[in-house]
Amino acid sequence: MSSIKESQELFIACQQAWTRGASAAWAVITAVDGSAYRRPGAKMLVTNDNDMRGSLSGGCLEADLYLQAQEVIGHGQSKVLHYDLAEDATWGLGIGCKGSLDILVLPVRHHDKFWRSFSASLKKSQALVWIHEVPDGQKGLLMADGNRLGDPLPTELWTLAERVIGKHSQLTHLDHRVFFVDPMTPAPRLIICGAGHDARPMVHLAAMAGFEVAVLDPRPHFNHPDRLPGASAHWVQEPHTAGLDVPYASFWLIMNHHRQRDLDSLRVALTKHPRWLGVLGPRRRTEGILDNLGLTFSDAPIVAPPGLDLGAETPEQVALSITAQMLSTLTKRSATPLHGRIRIHSS
Question: Is 198:319 a contact under the CB 8 Å cutoff?
Fold first, then answer.
């Protein structure tokens, strides 16, 4: 499973490259065996005028991928690259990841109708599945509403695509052909209620972590794109007047530093059935607000104060703590140290 947000950002970079007369290629991880920096579905962009966006290996392979992408752009033909990160004699990198991965590098052409349709579909921010014959064959898109775009693919592929919506990216073999099936999901939504000084690092870090951030605050001199550029939406209105188009199971963070606005924000958030609801400030303060609403902590997934116990003090540290807790909730991980994990290897 990959992120719609990542692909949206790459298409924006593609459009920028096309506007300045450059050509572009994507590099996409299609398979991983063992330990690797990222998983299947991860993507990066390379242009022929020295622009690179994204990362697939944390810097280990990007230089070689850049050269490979230039060849793909020049010849106009896709290729699959295999990297065995355990082969230090080959790479001389001393990486020690002990994993291998396959990466599909393919040209993304401005005049190609499929890529234009792909870009337009991503803007809807709805789940979809990209199907690509490896290395360079038929392509298709399955939308969440069942609509199909692209080439007339075998029925078995469309059926598989329907089954994997919201699941993991994978390679599949069909009649001696290989297809990459890449489900993409919308970025998790985070609504931050409050645009004070401490909202700035919160918006920035949450957006960097992959959340689509909206800010709800009635003060126009605080809640605007120049001051909070990481947010995709700025709702300049009081919480109780907001008719918000917010999907259920979104993340909410209430940090108005204003009791009535916090109460109003909490009331609105609860109508949207949040997946996680953080309220900044001491727990006793939040208990008082809940009392006014006739509620308790057991009535919703409320955390107060939000964040992991990192000893955070500054706004930046608090934002890091809260972002880490939201990410652990999103991925259903324990947020314990990685060095304490014991991996069981199957034979």
Answer: yes
Please tell me the distance from the alpha carbon of residue 184 to that of residue 4, in angstroms, as a whole number.
Answer: 5
For residue 52, the SS3 value is strand
Beta-carbon neighbour count of residue 34 at 10 Å? 13
Q: How far apart are CA 261 and CA 241, in angstroms?
A: 11
Q: How far is CA 41 from CA 15, 120, 165, 168, 317, in A?
A: 21, 19, 13, 8, 31
* Residue found under tokens 């006014």: 292
State the Cα–Cα distance between residues 345 and 347, nearest whole angstrom.
Answer: 6
* 48-54-60-63 Cα dihedral, nearest 10 degrees: 10
Helix (H) or strand (E) holding 4: helix 4-19
**pLDDT at position 340 over 90:** no
What is the C-alpha to C-alpha distance for residues 28 and 164, in angstroms, rounded to an integer? Answer: 18
pTM for the whole thing? 0.79
CA separation for the pair 87, 97 (Å, rounded): 10
- Number of H helices and E strands in the chain, helices first, is 9, 17
* Band of residue 151 on the pLDDT scale cut at 50, 70, 90: very high
User: Helix, strand, coil: what percent of the chain each, to 5?
Assistant: 35, 25, 40
pLDDT of residue 87: 58
Dump pLDDT digits (tens) for 176-228. Answer: 999 999 999 988 999 999 999 999 999 999 999 999 999 999 999 999 999 99
At a CB cut-off of 8 Å and minimum separation 6, what does 325 contact?
278, 303, 306, 307, 308, 335
